[in-house]
Amino acid sequence: MTAHKTTTQKNPRITVTFSHEIAGLLDLMAQEEHKSVSGLVRDLAMEALIKREDFQLSKLAQKLDVKGAKQISHEDAWK
Question: What is the average per-residue pLDDT within 6-10?
Answer without folding.
Answer: 73
